[in-house]
Amino acid sequence: MAGGLRLQGWLLAIWFAASFGVVFFAHDLSVVVNGWPVGYWFAAQGSVFIFIAIVALFARFANRRDAGPAGVDLAYAAYRRRLHWRFGAYVLCLLLFLLVLALAEQWGLKKSWVGAIFLFATVCLYAVIGIYGRTSDSAEYYVAGRNIPAVYNGMATAADWMSAASFISMAGGLYLQGFSGTPGQPGGLVYVLGWTGGFCLVALLVAPYLRKLELYTVPDYFQVRFGGRWPRIIAAFSAVLCSFTYVVAQIYGVGLITSRLTGVQFEIGILLGLGGVLVCSFLGGMRAVTWTQVTQYVVLILAFLIPVSWLAYKQLGNPLAPFVYGQQLPKIAALEQQLLASPAERQVTDEYARRAQEYAEKLQDVDAALQSARKGLKDRIQFLNEHRADESVIVAARRELAALPRDTAIARDTWARAMQDNLERAKPLGGMPAHTQAFAGDPDGNADDRAAFENSRLNFLTLMFCLMVGTAGLPHLLTRFFTTRTVAEARTSVVWSLFFIALLYLAAPALAVLVKYEIMSHLVGQSFDSLPVWIAQWAKVDPSLISVSDVNGDHILQFSELRMGADIVMLATPELGGLPYVVSALVAAGGLAAALSTADGLLLTIGNALAHDLFFRGASGSGQAGAVRRVMLSKFVLLVAALVAAYVAAQRPADILYLVSASFSLAGAAFVPVMVLGILWPGTTSRAAVCGMTAGLGLTIYYTAINAAAVRSALGLNGSGLWFGIQPVSAGVFGILAGVLVTVGVSLVWPSSAVPSGERGAAGADGI
């Protein structure tokens, strides 16, 4: 017991040093070794290797400590062998299918048919698994019968974890934000560190203990540990809130990919993809979802690694992208300097600054500016009609008139956003930071530079903290570790999960660098007439994904004239690298698999939280009939939640990366302080749990909402509402701190409602 706690303490200290310590001193670790800035290498790769070693060492030690008498379960061993054979056959068939489609494309099969066949085949595969795995048994529906081997649960967890944000947006975020993002938008390598380092907390503090309690859902823990109605109700509400925020981002990604793959409208793409989600989660619950996610992991990891390996081979002659892309970092730094010195680039940024100034002048008297603009366009249309101008010119003028804001309020909001957008694009490199620069500003510069540096580093650290702690609290992730046979397999499953996740997370920074080099060295400088067709095709799907405009009128594409959203970088990589269209279809199918796999798990969490945790409150009902009713209600709620999430996603509320990051803040603040204190400290009381969860979640929601532009405008609030300059995406840092302080304080002041009878012995750290 004491030895186990000491090991946990040492491993947590190493985790802290490899993440927060490395990031804090990243600017000082700027020495370059073999092309790699040391601080950048640790943040992009080195720390991930350390995290894998931490969870592997802990699992090995703890499993040896808890090992019982040696024995072989022959039936389970035979079951695993059958799974290995089936998995091997599936991988082989998938590779052969890819080869056949590639040959068919070479022989003249239309691209639209290639995409449609790939979409139809993969969704049908998921549907077959969903139908085959259909069940009404509660143990099978909620936890897959607790019979999933660690390696396959690790694969399913990786697919569940690597959502549309990981597959589609993370490499794009790294492309746009470099090491650490901008002062107003922290990001970059924080996602690699935050979304892998959090698994150390899952392994050391949460997953094994929860698995020992034989739970169905995360809110079950709050019922078992604290008793009473309110801890479970608040936990269920929190699970719905953070999971719904998360699933909206996934369904948005589903619509984005399906519309590009099939050519249908974005909203129709959402509905098509939603069918693939529902057929698995609705029919078979966790049993069907688990095996669907295993198949989806193979699709998404091949879809990610093939293009990045090709780009690495094309540029560097070596397909092992994570190990060689550092050679491109000095080249990108040199290209950045050339762009900064380019007169043509300065012409572009000056034009954006002029446009920003125009919007600023309009905002001084919005009503007068709107009336003047409307009158000017009407006069122009009248003039064009009188002089029999070309019909296309007249139509364009009428469209410009129709596009004007309808009233003063809309005009003020639209022009304010346009002004801010042009101000950002008026900055060097289109507002993007130097790729390997650790934080904005300069610690050795003037007062403003030093302040910018400190603020940038603080936002990076707080967002990383929220992502790590949020990882340990996300219900759809923790539920995956309820499906293993034993606590030991749950620990091993965390190791496999992080290993399978790292295969993509180590490749994402490589992809961002390789794409940036490809664009800077080959795409920039081309004539607008010779730009690749894929730019216009993706712009039709959603103009916010990619757009080009000849701002300075020289008919040559400048870097600042190309606008790329984070969600396009991965999806357009095959076309950027000149790969066959079948690889583009594979990438789209991989993105679809990532979004569908995570959406499956999230919708299950929402349905189970509302039906199992709120309506039935974990009770079994009246025998088998009650259990069946509970499962059927979970399915109905899941269907309703899916339709509501699809409607919200169709409104395109925000980019995928922001929505996902916000859900981590919510999960971390709502669950982790109370859950970990409940595991480690028997003195945590039921009253304290209610107060801690309410305080943490409430403060996080408040800080996020009060800093939303729409809310501040509606309430007439001026200036910045930020505390200590921390961006709202990291609101969880305040909620987590409040949750810890309130839970500890209330437990000490009112200790009477401590662990319910019969649970005191199970509440300590020995459960880990």
Protein described:
- Strand 3 and strand 4 form a beta hairpin.
- 73% of the residues lie in helices and 2% in strands.
- The model is unreliable at 753-767 (pLDDT under 50).
- The chain has one domain (2-66, 109-326, 450-517, 578-767): Sodium/glucose cotransporter (Up-down Bundle).
- With 768 residues, the chain is an all-alpha fold.
- Helix 6 (150-161) crosses helix 24 (581-615) and helix 26 (656-680) runs antiparallel to helix 27 (686-706).
- It has helices spanning 2-24, 38-66, 74-106, 111-132, 138-143, 150-161, 164-177, 190-212, 218-226, 230-262, 266-316, 321-324, 328-341, 343-364, 366-386, 391-402, 408-425, 447-471, 475-478, 487-505, 507-523, 533-541, 573-576, 581-615, 623-650, 656-680, 686-706, 709-715, 732-749, and strands at 32-33, 36-37, 181-182, 185-186, 546-548, 562-564.
- The strands form three sheets. The protein has a two-stranded antiparallel sheet. A two-stranded antiparallel sheet has the order 3-4.
